[in-house]
Amino acid sequence: MNKHFLTVSLLAVILLAGCKKDPVPTPVDPTPSTAPIYLLSEGSWGGNDAEISLLDKNSDTVVLDWFSRNNGRGLGDLAQDLVHYGSYLYTAVFNSNTIEVINPLTGKSIKQINMGQRGPRYIVPLNGKIYVTCYDKTVVRIDTATFAIEATCPLSGMQPEQLCVIGDNLYVCNCWQYDANGEAIYDSTVSIVNLGTFTETGKITVGQNPGKIKALDSHRFIVACAGDHHSPVTVIVDILSQEKTPLSVSATNFDIYNNTIYLYNTSYDAQWNPTASFYRVDATTLQVTPMLESYSRKLSYAYGINVDPATGNLYICNSPYTASADVYAFRPDGTEIRHVEGCILSSKVVF
After folding, report:
1. Which of 158, 197, 271, 291 has the most C-beta neighbours closer than 10 Å?
2. Domain range summary for the chain, segments of one domain joined by +
């Protein structure tokens, strides 16, 4: 998820207001010291309770329900992704089939893009466009000047999830779908979509049920493959040599900062009680180092992990399915800075 700022006056109001239902005032010129954090909460399935909240990165202050306070309505049903690009925040709301365009200073909705029945999932921005994966097995290109859907690229794989950009191509995870009998079946490929022609030009086999992907550098990406939820694997793919190198630990989710991969892996006991294990991985040597070992139980419902690009601080959303989430902040050495309460199924932090 990516960045924007509020003013000193805005944060002063936030510090005084806490979580009151007062609207956020119109800001003036922002400064880096007042940069907020945007917290995306997916919400519960069918609950129509997706939300964006506002965190102060320098204190324990939280403005819950920031989006709905400023718009008189919520985001909708199942907010899947949030990115900051140019002058706006963009949110993909899966079940509501919308892309919400939001002013990052005021929280006001600028545009709600109707995605029909496509089922928008994940967003990546580039060169004045946003590219959105959709569960109708397409990638959609939207112009950020007009907010119009410009083009659609059909994919030959199963339902797509995350995507990333390297060079002239998008790399798109093809994950899973239901068969004719209602049973889940799994893909194992990443589609290559040429940005110039906006067509699928090939696929790379990576592992069963790929879902999370990020570019590591100019010729490598990392992809987390969930398998059938019993045999996960995380692979680094070199698109020049076609070499595929599995990590010694698998990732349920991950983020990248300063040539380091930060990841967690969630495992379950016989009663399906989760435990989360956290690691940092050197992206060059692939050496794996455990971290946050004393937090495995406390963060057992880890549901999102993001690194602040300005500080290297690590933010983890711990989201039990039936309770409000907690968001923990750690320094790069693993020292806890603070934790605050989020909303239902908080899943991503955008800086």
Report:
1. 158
2. 164-246, 253-351
pTM above 0.70, yes or no: yes
Rounded to whole angstroms, the Cα distance separating 290 from 226 reads: 20
Contacts of 310 (CB under 8 A, 6+ apart): 3, 32, 35, 351
Query: Which among 351, 348, 305 is positioned nearest to 50, based on CA atoms?
Result: 348
pLDDT digits (tens, 9 = 90+) for 297-338: 999 999 999 999 999 999 999 999 889 999 999 999 999 999
Residue 20: count other Cβ atoms within 10 Å of its Cβ: 12
Rg of the chain in Å (alpha carbons): 19
Structure tokens at 244: 């595929």
List Cβ neighbours of 63 (8 Å cut-off, separation of 6 or more).
14, 17, 18, 19, 24, 53, 54, 55, 69
> What pLDDT score does 244 carry?
98
d(CA 71, CA 184): 38
Q: CB-based contacts of 255: which residues, under 8 Å, 6+ apart?
A: 214, 261, 262, 263, 305, 306, 307, 314
From residue 272, alpha-carbon distances to 14, 93, 108, 138, 268 in Å are 39, 28, 40, 34, 5
Q: Which residues contact 222 (CB under 8 A, 6 or more apart)?
A: 213, 214, 216, 234, 235, 236, 237, 251, 254, 256, 261, 283
255: helix, strand or coil = strand
Query: CA-CA distances (angstroms) from residue 198 to 128, 150, 155, 175?
Result: 15, 11, 11, 20
User: What is the rounded distance in angstroms from the CA atom of residue 147 to the CA atom of residue 122?
Assistant: 16
